[in-house]
Structures are given as structure tokens and as C-alpha cells.
Amino acid sequence: xxxxxxxLLLTPGPLSTSKTVRExxxxxxxxxxEDYKSIVQDIRSSLLALSNGGDEYSTVLMQGSGTFSVxxxxxxxxxxxxxxxxxxxxxxxxxxxxxxxxxGIKLELLDLEEHExxxxxxxxxxxxxxxxxxxxxxxxxxxxxxxxxxxxxxAELADKYNKCFILDAMSSFGGVPLDIRSPKIDFLISSANKxxxxxxxxxxxxxxxxxxxxxxxxxxxxSLDLYDQWKAMENDPGKWxxxxxxxxxxxxxxxxxxxxxxxxxxxxxxxYVNNHQTLVKGMKNLGIEAFLSEEDQSPIITAFHEPSSPDxxxxxxxxxxxxxxxxxxxxxxxxxxxxxxxxxxxVFPEDIKRLIIAIEKIKFW
Length: 365
Known about the structure:
Elements: E1 8-9, H1 19-23, H2 34-51, E2 57-63, H3 66-77, E3 83-88, H4 91-103, E4 106-111, H5 120-129, E5 135-139, E6 141-142, E7 147-148, H6 152-160, E8 164-168, E9 187-191, E10 202-208, H7 209-213, H8 226-235, H9 246-262, H10 264-285, E11 301-305, H11 314-324, E12 326-327, E13 329-330, E14 338-342, H12 349-362
Parallel strand pairs: 1-12, 3-4, 3-5, 5-8, 8-9
Antiparallel strand pairs: 2-10, 6-7, 9-10, 11-14, 13-14
InterPro entries: Aminotrans_V_dom, NH2EtPonate_pyrv_transaminase, PyrdxlP-dep_Trfase, PyrdxlP-dep_Trfase_major, PyrdxlP-dep_Trfase_small, SP_NH2Trfase/AEP_transaminase
Binding site for substrate: 340
Catalytic activity: (2-aminoethyl)phosphonate + pyruvate = phosphonoacetaldehyde + L-alanine
């Protein structure tokens, strides 16, 4: 028999969840039933409140991983004649650009180094040089490195130049405070299994109603038509167009209740920051340095340089730590040898301290 929780997931999602979130999945639901649809509506309104969107915005839930929701936004809001500027300093910015390229939409890519933030001056220069740009897309928390991109100056430029602004807040929403109206975000995208601390199965989009309404008929994808999904949920409140992940949805409602019980996003952000600071300090004491400078690091996940010793092996570290009750992430930085440790989810500073003790115990390099 597999134990309930054999190890702690120190990843950017899926992540370690509370026992009560997992227990919320222990019954079945009918997607047509009013009880279930009321759960969906509670989730939609709760997410809207967390974003501070108000009547100007609406929430749409979408089956699949977070990337499904990113693709749904792009298929729905981009027309054949449009052009999007994508800011990329990691794998997930590149993924957004790849989706756009596969769609055949005109793309302006600002391809940055993985340790580099987008300069507002450079973005404004590109907007002036390319007046045909209609949309700007970027990632808030780039988990390739743990970079927390400063989206606010870019959103302000989008507003100034009348561009639609798309923010992939997959790994930040619910764990990093933000106000969707200030500066204005037109489409904010996130996922159930990130900072809200639910389980995988669906993503969600918080969209400005005026912009979403103008997207009718744009999508060339049937399943990923965000407008049609939204209209279905509006016309028959809480009803998805196609079979929804009912168990995941119920678990997410429990996760939202636990976020509220913790003290909301501000309190959760403080815990994540404490986790991060405890981790970086402990790793530094062991001679392991973070990849990014402190001012760029997010409270979501941290990339570390691999020790220079020829005896070091990530696979060996991974399996030894797994035996100690911790699962970490391999590196994704293209030009440096790194590994990553996440500090979101049902994880607390005491857990990070136990991790540091475990690394010190097994240190083999």
C-alpha cells in the first residue's frame, strides 16, 4: 500500500497539498447538478475577488494543464491580422511564442537572457518601431530560473499604446499580491495546482469583459475557444461545455477556503518568502549559491548552481533526497548547470529546515 504522502514535493506544481484538499475529492459529482454548478460559481467569484477585478472582469475555467489555458487565450484573442510582442527570458515565454508561431500569427519576440529582465525602455522602443503590434504577452513568475518578472511597467506601456496585455501568472497568482486593474491586465492566466494549492486538472483565466466579448468567433480551435467556454458558463451558470474535472474542481474550492483561512494572498506570500529566504540562507551555508541575484528571485522556486565538484550528480542528489522524503526539480537553465527547489504548496519553513539538514547529511561532493 502506498503511504498517503511519502515525500514532500518541492516543485512549482503539481505541489504538496493539504490532507483536507485531497480528502475533498472523496466523492463523485454530476456536472449537470445544481450543487456542482454552485461550486463552480463559487470558484469563479472567489478568483475574481482575489484579483480585485470587480464587475469589469469575469472568470473562465478551462480543462487541462495551464498551457491549455495559455493556448486558449491566444487562439481566442488573436485575429489573423494581429501581431503580438512576446517577452521571453525562459522556457515559458518561449512556449508562448511557439504557440503563436504554430498559429501563424505575426510575432515580435524579445528574447532575453535567462537572468535578464525586460527593460521598459526596450519594450517601448519596440512598440514605436512596430506600430502594428496589437498584443503583448509575458510570464510573471518564470520558473525556469525562479525569476519574478516586473510586469507592471510593461502593463502600463500596453495601456499607454492601447495594446491588449496578456499575463501568464501561472506560478504566481494566489501567492504573490497583485491587482488586475492597476496596472490593467486584459487576460490573466493561472492554474489550479499552483499557489492556490489545489490539484492538477484545470486552469483559469480572469479576463476583462469588454475585451473578451470582442473575441467572439476568433478561435480556430473548438475545445480551446475561451469565448464559447465563457458564454456557456454565463448562460448556464457553472456549466462547462465539455466534461469537467469534477474531483479537481471540488478540491480547488477547499483550497480556496484554506487560502482564506491562512489570511489570504498576503499571508501566503509571507510564508512563501520565509520559505525562500530560509532555503537560500541554508544552501549558502552549505556552499551552494543561487543562480539569480536576490532582487530578481521569486518566492516560488529557486535555481541553484550545481556544485563544481566532479563527484556531484543531480540524479544521485535527487534519489538520496527522495529517500529522505523530499522531491526536487532538475535544472532548466540553458547556459548553466543548475537544479531547482520549489517552496510553494503546503510547505512551511520547518520543512525547509529539515531539507537543509537532509542535504547536509547526504552531502557527497
